[in-house]
From TrEMBL:
Belongs to the aspartate/ornithine carbamoyltransferase superfamily. The gene is pyrB. This is Aspartate carbamoyltransferase catalytic chain. Gene3D superfamilies: Aspartate/ornithine carbamoyltransferase. Residues 47-201 form the Aspartate/ornithine carbamoyltransferase carbamoyl-P binding domain. The keyword Zinc-finger does not apply.
Length: 417
């Protein structure tokens, strides 16, 4: 649902109280992200998490370091006991009125790792919204009982507007709590982008338990034909996104984060269909960022004189999000060969030996964008990617509640030897 800017007299005027409430924030919603981000921070750290643009490379590295430490501490009983004691006095509301499995469960697990008590509303039919309560009233009510609201909604810009509501409450001396956007309409999914980046960071460290002072996986890869110029880290890479680019909010969020790194190229592979191709606003944002990006309609189109499937350093697959289809969309698909946007073992065999395959999930068993026979390929990272969400989101919550420093000190004092 988009914010309606028409006058009240028009046929497209807002029809619900929620839509009218969104208009109260119209001026703030229309600003560039750069103008918004200071309002979403407090004392040099994130207060509300709404956009992927709030993460810069330095903060992403910091969060990755905290996530790695939480991962290590969680392997030991003493580390678990320490982590669970950090925020045992905090309560979180998981307000998920749009279907979710991985995001909901990983946020719940992240809260539990840090000792945060969770409650949930996943079906508005079980809440007072069935009695006519607006979403904004629901969110303000939640802030009376909880210390954090993690929200996922089909309504675009709702999370951002609720962050401004909380800021207004704070300024007037009322109770205000952090808002974390776990997916807002087709806008953004910043914490998915965070865990995607974390997965890429760990992958492009190129470390292995078998590494030694005499040999390492990274040096071995650099002797492989075509990999001589391989570097560690997220810079100097070609990232490809395939599938539903137009409606994939995870694609939008991750692409904007990757555009922050040096010498990065972004390739978008999608069918020739208006709903599935890159939206103009993403083109404009990437252009304004000075990012190198390309649009293809096939894995066989060339970059650097080679098919893109052989050139990419990482591949991000997505399903066609049919839940957003209109009747015109469904009719338009009939003329498309969507099988071209599904991976096959043959295509994977042509990829670079280190190139990870990511997917935000769920994958569509009917569309078949990633068949299960690829799951055992060492480059298939999507199940690790989902688990990484738990660690990355725990690190993010530790940052929001300002206990990340405690975690790092405890680790270095008690576990680093």
């Amino acid at each position: 649902m988009s914010v309606v800017m028409s006058s009240p007299a028009s046929d497209s005027a807002p029809k619900t109280q929620d839509e009218r409430d969104l208009l109260l924030y119209e001026g703030r919603l229309q600003r560039p992200q750069m103008a918004k981000t200071p309002e979403l921070a407090r004392n040099g750290r994130l207060r509300h998490v709404i956009f992927s643009g709030q993460f810069n490379p330095a903060l992403l590295d910091e969060l990755a370091g905290v996530a790695d430490v939480i991962r290590q501490l969680s392997k030991h009983r003493a580390g678990q006991d320490f982590l669970i004691s950090l925020l045992h006095h905090k309560r979180a509301m998981l307000y998920f009125t749009q279907p979710s499995t991985r995001t909901f469960l990983s946020f719940m697990a992240a809260c539990q790792i840090l000792g945060i008590t969770c409650n949930e509303v996943r079906d508005p039919q079980t809440s007072s919204e069935t009695k006519g309560e607006t979403r904004f009233d629901s969110l303000r009510m939640f802030s009376s009982y909880f210390d954090l609201i993690v929200m996922r909604s089909p309504m675009a810009r709702l999370a951002e507007s609720c962050a401004y509501l909380m800021n207004d409450l704070e300024r007037s001396g009322n109770r205000s709590v952090p808002i974390v956007n776990a997916g807002s309409g087709a806008d953004e999914h910043p914490t998915q982008a965070l865990l995607d980046i974390y997965t890429l960071q760990r992958t492009f460290n190129f470390t292995s338990p078998n590494d030694s002072s005499y040999s390492s996986r990274f040096e071995t890869l650099r002797t492989t034909p075509g990999c001589e110029n391989l570097t560690k880290g997220l810079s100097n890479k070609t990232y490809a996104f395939c599938g539903d680019i137009g409606r994939g909010r995870t694609v939008r969020s991750l692409a904007m984060l990757l555009a922050n790194y040096e010498n990065v190229r972004l390739a978008f592979i999608s069918p020739n269909h208006q709903s599935l191709q890159m939206r103009e606003d993403l083109r404009e944002r990437l252009t304004a960022r000075g990012a190198q990006f390309y649009e293809f309609d096939s894995f066989e189109q060339t970059l650097d004189g080679k098919p893109i499937i052989e050139t990419l350093d990482a591949l991000y697959m997505t399903r066609v999000q049919r839940e957003h289809d209109t009747s015109d969309d469904a009719a338009g698909y009939a003329a498309l060969d969507l099988t071209q946007y599904c991976l096959t073992p043959q295509l994977v065999s042509r990829m670079k030996p280190y190139a990870p395959i990511l997917h935000p999930f769920p994958r569509d068993q009917h569309f078949g964008e990633i068949p299960t026979e690829i799951d055992n390929d060492p480059r298939a990272m999507y199940f690790r990617q989902a688990r990484n969400g738990m660690w990355a989101r725990a690190a993010l919550l530790a940052h929001v509640f300002d206990v990340d420093g405690h975690i790092m000190r405890f680790f270095h004092n008690d576990f680093s030897v």
